[in-house]
Amino acid sequence: MLVLLIIILPLVFAALTIIAGEKQAKNTATLGAVFTLAAGIAGFHRYAVDATSKLLVFHTEWIKALNADFYIKIDGINSILLLLTVLLMPFIIQSTQDRITKSPRAFYSLMLVMQSAMLGVFLAKDAMLFYIFWELSLLPIYLLALIWGGEHKKRITFKFFVFTLFGSLFMLLAIIFVWLHNPTRSFSIYDFYTAGALLTAPQQLFVFIAFYLAFAIKIPIFPLHSWQPDTYVTAPTQGTMLLSGIMLKMGAFALIVFQSHH
To answer: Fewer CB atoms inside 10 A, N or C side of the chain?
Structure first.
């Protein structure tokens, strides 16, 4: 249950931040980030001490018709990225120095929602759940840049949104393709490794290209990087910190997770 708590805590405090007064929004969000930090450190420590602990896994039936499960787990490289995400968030929130005067409750709530989604990406062991968290992480940063961004924010954030959404569609195609060729008809990433090995060489190439496009845009890798410079300049400082400090790591992480066994 500890691993589930790590994802839920930012959402709970995002809701509390919305309810809190304008002056209390930052303090409430900071408290949420600190609680999540404590839970994340506990999870990281538990993994280091006992990698087989039941506290590190939450696995339950989710979308029965598709055989998709809500399956999250702390293991290996994701423990490092979990620690990175929970460590950075309190500092990112505090970096505002009370300069956010326009809808601070919405601003801090979106940051916490984004943290929860990014943690979900790192911890998900079900490909469909991974995809949903991947998409959910896009919306908060899009709104942060669109509402609190600088000059030409509408044009620049739209370009960022189109690039990342375009890449995500390729990933969805690849996930569905592997699922259709998976004998177990499961979205488990572990089962995907077996299913991928059963594909023909042309099929594996298609899956690789589709996944690679999605992850290369997020990293980003030339020539799919053109959204990055303008977005970094236009987004609020905290949005840029979330992008560069955590979100772009999702692309490299996903490349390792989905491609290392194909």
So the answer is: N
Judged against a pLDDT cut of 90, whether residue 258 lies above it is answered with no
The alpha carbon torsion through 39, 45, 48, 49 (nearest 10 deg) reads -110
Per residue in 24-60, pLDDT tens?
999 999 999 999 999 999 999 999 999 889 999 999 9
User: Residue 52's CB: how many other CB atoms inside 10 A?
Assistant: 8
This prediction has a pTM of 0.92
Angle subtended by helix axes 2-19 and 104-123, to nearest 10: 170
Half-sphere exposure of 95 (CA within 13 A, CB side): 13
3-state DSSP of the chain: CHHHHHHHHHHHHHHHHHHCCHHHHHHHHHHHHHHHHHHHHHHHHHHHHCCCCHHHEEEEEEEHHHCEEEEEECCCHHHHHHHHHHHHHHHHHHCCCCCCCCCHHHHHHHHHHHHHHHHHHHHECEHHHHHHHHHHHHHHHHHHHHHHCCCCHHHHHHHHHHHHHHHHHHHHHHHHHHHHCCCCCCCEHHHHHHHHHHCCHHHHHHHHHHHHHHHHHHCCCCCCCCHHHHHHHHCCHHHHHHHHHHHHHHHHHHHHHHHCCC
Residue-level pLDDT at 262: 41
Domain ranges of the chain: 2-259
* CB-CB neighbours of 11 under 10 Å: 17
In sequence order, the β-bridge partners of residue 198 are none
